[in-house]
Known about the structure:
The chain has helices at 2-15, 26-38, 48-72, 74-88, 94-107, 110-121, 130-159, 161-173, 182-210, 213-226, 235-247, 256-283. The longest helix is centred in the middle third of the chain and has 30 residues, at 130-159. Helix content is 77%, strand content 0%.
Amino acid sequence: MSFLVVLIGVIADRLLPQLNEYRNDAWFQAAYHHLFRRLPRDAAWPGLVLAAVAVLIPAVVTWIALWLVWEVAPFLAYLLGLVVFIFMLGPRGLFTDLHAYIDAERSGDEAERDRLAGVILAPGPIPPTPLERTRAIITRMLVLAGRRLFGAIFWYVILGPAGAVLFRAADILRHRSDLDSDAAIEAAQRLYGVLEWAPSRLLAGSYALAGSFDEAMAERRAYYTECQGRFFEINEDILACTGRGALAFASESADEIEELEATANLLFRALVIWLTVLALLSLLGWT
């Protein structure tokens, strides 16, 4: 059943771009705002306790709600779990944004291209030259794939809909500006990094299998020789360097549209790998 839910969810995510306007973070942000206003503001609260409480509350509420529905109507619980999973993807469609950017680049619509570049690269700046902008978009998409899609899939398979909520809540929490202390912000980032560690490594391996394996592994080894971050701090760097290696682009000159399309194909092949493995696990009765 996990395979069917994930399959339907990723199809909906790819074919229904109108979901973007309903999957924004506003309701999560409002809930966190009310939660933080009620928590004590003394020195005992910042840190992992605050991060764990803020992330576990929506996950536990989801688990309890679906368990109660399951006791009455199991099929309805599956449907609700599917809805939860779909809404935990995103908040924007990964392939929707990438293909929209490719279309704007191909048609020469500079205003739409720049708007989409701002959305994809936010909160960072847009590079000035076409090749730099294209490479920045590609790197960002390789990273966003873990955050928007594959991380949610992984935690859904492990913990069900509550797992997808857990992952999404941790991602939202680390971007909040009202945590009041550096310790709380660092704890939120650490918690997300721990949750992202396993899916990011699996996704990086999928990039290597779906693209140029030797180049991907060479880029990853080169990164590790200079890496000094802790294991939960380098997840996005691993995705970026392995993905760029798997794409094996020339550094001097390139066709921007071809590179963007190659990136879309790499992400799709990685998704097919995950779905194939999940289907096999379902046939073996492991999910």
